[in-house]
Amino acid sequence: MGWIIALIVGGVAGWLASMVMGRDASMGVFWNIIVGIIGSVIGNFVGGYFGFGGTIQEFSITGLFTAFVGAVVLLLILNLIQRGRVR
């Protein structure tokens, strides 16, 4: 059951982050889930240093927030990398 919750929370966090970062049109549901799950890992890693963090395997507002913040950081890094490429 934890994996289903992880996919749902990751998808929501990735979707919200892609809307904030202006990448919503270029990302599908699959990539929103991937960005949200990777963002959760990043958010929990960074949140551990500041004394907060949540788990994505059970729903909590803290877990959703850390996944969202981590997904925004991930999309920010991806935007910086893509700007450096020749299109």
TrEMBL record:
<dbReference type="InterPro" id="IPR007341">
    <property type="entry name" value="Transgly_assoc"/>
</dbReference>
<keyword id="KW-1003">Cell membrane</keyword>
<feature type="transmembrane region" description="Helical">
    <location>
        <begin position="59"/>
        <end position="81"/>
    </location>
</feature>
<feature type="transmembrane region" description="Helical">
    <location>
        <begin position="29"/>
        <end position="53"/>
    </location>
</feature>
<feature type="transmembrane region" description="Helical">
    <location>
        <begin position="6"/>
        <end position="22"/>
    </location>
</feature>
<dbReference type="Pfam" id="PF04226">
    <property type="entry name" value="Transgly_assoc"/>
</dbReference>
<keyword id="KW-0472">Membrane</keyword>
<comment type="similarity">
    <text>Belongs to the UPF0410 family.</text>
</comment>
<keyword id="KW-0812">Transmembrane</keyword>
<protein>
    <submittedName>
        <fullName>GlsB/YeaQ/YmgE family stress response membrane protein</fullName>
    </submittedName>
</protein>
<keyword id="KW-1133">Transmembrane helix</keyword>
